[in-house]
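Attaching the record inline, Q. Sequence:
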Amino acid sequence: GGGDLVTATTEVSVRALRLDFGEVVSDAVADARAIEATDQAARAKAIREATREAIEDFIG
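Structure, as predicted:
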């Protein structure tokens, strides 16, 4: 019905690789939840938030 909200959750992982040695040199993980009117909007908002948090943790 009208007025229903959708909740989306996501987890984003970021890794820095040293390709000459083939190893991970740094990584960060973040998750987020968002509530919006549509599934697409909730997913997009959750992904944006988790990505922002992961990148901020990753680069300091």
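DSSP finds one helix and two strands in the chain. Residues 6-59 form one domain.

More tomorrow.
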